[in-house]
Amino acid sequence: MNKKIINTIEKYNLIEPNDTILIALSGGADSVFLAKFLLSIRETYNLTLKAAHVEHGIRGKESLSDCSFVEEFCKINNIECFILHINAIEEAKAAKIGVEEYSRNKRYEFFNTIECDKIATAHNLSDNVETILFRLARGTSLKGMCGIPVKRDKIIRPIIEVSSKEIRNYLQENNIPYCVDFTNNENEYNRNKIRNIIIPMFKEINGDFENAVNRFIKSANEDQNFLDSSVDLIYESIVYDNSLDLKQLRKKSVSEIKQVLIRYFKENDISLDEYHLSEVLKLVYTKSKTQINNNIFAISNENYLRVACFGNNIDFSNVVVKKEVLSKNDFLTKCELSSKKFDFYCDCDKIIGNVLVRARKTGDKITLSGRNCSKTLKKLYNELSIPIEDRNNIPVIVDDNGVIGIYGYCVDERVSVKNDTKNVMILNIRTEDFN
């Protein structure tokens, strides 16, 4: 058994001499098996072993008993032990996420507070098979079918090629005690259904089903590595100013395009599931946008695709508007002396009623000075290539008869300064967010 695990360690370079390894020790069969293995090679590799246990506060006395077991195990085997107690159900509810997700996040958050070179988790071959089937049931990509990574950052999984049956047979043959979580036998959770119902049915078809899936996982990883290498060669030529050059991207195969999209969004701290990947893929061939998460969107035009974050819009009721009215001659003198271009100015005497500064509204139109046609602000913003996420924060200046200007961009023909202009109104608009 040790030889099999050592082959995995050497193949993936998981452990080096003099490493300090933190064992994620739940007290269950898998983690105890992992700990026993690491103890067996402690002297050979000159390892410093530590253990971390999270008591989730879910199973009452059983949970506390598991914690005591871990503490005693570590004491007997001279392993430094770190314990964290949480109330997973209540804390997950407060965080508004699932208990399983919350617990996993808290575990790794806790592990990362403990000084070590590697964090060893007890994921095994059976866990990997369950993960593959679980992802397949929900819909996944080749990347998802690569299974649980053997190594990710500081996290290592030395027993990933050992089945759950092999682990339990070894512990039983060597009279090694471990804790049993009886909720694993309950089929209320989907993963338990996969473990207790679906996998046994596959084993009726092929008794070596788990090893067959393991061979598939290795093949999937080889293909994924090839795709990653291909993307490495083309990625830098497609990304410009944190946008994807669609003209270049469309020349690639669909498989390469998907890999580029996955990497691009990952580098923007966004993980795309299969549904959102398919929605973003559509943007490669059309001008549109799709929501990824909350205020995060993917947006495309004819040339580029990019990530956009729609933040809080400016409250124009709080903007500071400074108005100055000058004669035309004084205005021209001021412009000449200060060599200044004003963000908005117009013929004061052509304004109808009151002047108001607000965000754009659906149907807003403007007739640009010097042009004989009106256009919607949407079309104007497209023409000016103004990012969609910025458009609602651009001050629109109106009087009682409609839009008279877009601050910093243009003025309506109706109130533009001309030869017959006598008085000029200058506006200076400022908020904490608008500079």
Give a quick rundown of the structure:
The protein has 435 residues and is α+β, with helices and mostly antiparallel strands. The protein has helices at residues 2-12, 29-40, 42-45, 61-76, 88-95, 99-111, 125-138, 164-173, 190-205, 209-238, 246-249, 254-267, 274-283, 328-338, 377-383; strands at residues 20-24, 48-55, 80-85, 118-120, 151-152, 155-156, 239-240, 243-245, 288-293, 296-300, 304-309, 320-327, 344-347, 356-358, 365-367, 374-376, 396-399, 402-406, 410-411, 423-430.
List the SSEs and their pairings:
Elements: H1 2-12, E1 20-24, H2 29-40, H3 42-45, E2 48-55, H4 61-76, E3 80-85, H5 88-95, H6 99-111, E4 118-120, H7 125-138, E5 151-152, E6 155-156, H8 164-173, H9 190-205, H10 209-238, E7 239-240, E8 243-245, H11 246-249, H12 254-267, H13 274-283, E9 288-293, E10 296-300, E11 304-309, E12 320-327, H14 328-338, E13 344-347, E14 356-358, E15 365-367, E16 374-376, H15 377-383, E17 396-399, E18 402-406, E19 410-411, E20 423-430
Parallel strand pairs: 1-2, 1-4, 2-3, 4-6
Antiparallel strand pairs: 5-6, 7-8, 8-11, 9-10, 10-11, 12-20, 13-20, 14-17, 15-16, 17-18, 18-19
Helix pairs in contact: 5-6, 7-9, 7-10, 10-12
